[in-house]
Amino acid sequence: MSQLGWSARSSLSGVCASVLALSVASCIPSAKPKAAASLACGEDQVTMEDGYGMSQIASGCGKKDVVSYDGGKGGWSSLRERAAFEMSCGAGQLEVTILAQDVYGVTGCNKKVVYKNIPYVGITAETAQETAPPDTKPAGQ
Fold first, then answer.
1. Distance between CA atoms of residues 80 and 44, nearest Å
2. Do residues 68 and 76 lie in contact, with contact meaning Cβ atoms separated by under 8 Å?
3. Which DSSP category does 30 fall into?
4. CB-based burial of residue 111 (10 Å sphere; 0-12 exposed, 13-18 middle, 19+ buried)?
5. Residues contacting 88, CB < 8 A, separation 6+
6. Relative orientation angle of helices 32-39 and 79-86, to the nearest 10 degrees
7. Which of 3, 39, 69, 105 has the most CB atoms lying inside 10 A of its own CB?
8. Helices (H) and strands (E) in the chain, counts
9. Number of C-alpha atoms within 13 angstroms, CB side, residue 59?
10. Whole-structure pTM over 0.85, yes or no?
């Protein structure tokens, strides 16, 4: 068995890691179809940018979403769709705001939830609160 020097082993290890990363990346389907569905936009109207970890920030039709890859399910999940369920609010009524690289705010239906993207765990709800409904009294009363 031949012995490789430290430098050669280190270089080969870097090459193998690069090949492995490319192989894994090519196995993950595009996030754009999921983002387009959650934003109710055509794929040609959606732009994607890298997010934190295995997530991407989607923008289109005046809305934002965070889509994250779930290796266990083998597909993408939408923060907007999850928040709609958790907040009992239509996805179209929600506003997603990127607060930090790994922190997202969702508001709608007089509710506000802050989510955090935790490596190897996923996106979790951090805080939630009710907000006051808009004043519906006619002026002067």
1. 19
2. yes
3. P
4. middle
5. 109
6. 40
7. 39
8. 3, 8
9. 8
10. no
Q: CA 100, CA 18: separation in Å to the nearest integer?
A: 29
Nearest CA to 124 among 102, 91, 107, 100? 102
Q: What is the pLDDT of residues 55-81, one digit of tens each?
A: 999 999 999 999 999 888 889 999 999
9 token code pair: 């082993």
Closest CA to 93 of 136, 56, 40, 55: 40
User: What is the CB neighbour count within 10 angstroms for residue 98?
Assistant: 16
Nearest to 43 by CA among 58, 56, 57: 58
Question: How does pLDDT run across 83-141, given as a tens digit for each residue?
Answer: 999 999 999 999 999 999 999 999 999 999 999 999 888 899 998 888 877 665 555 55
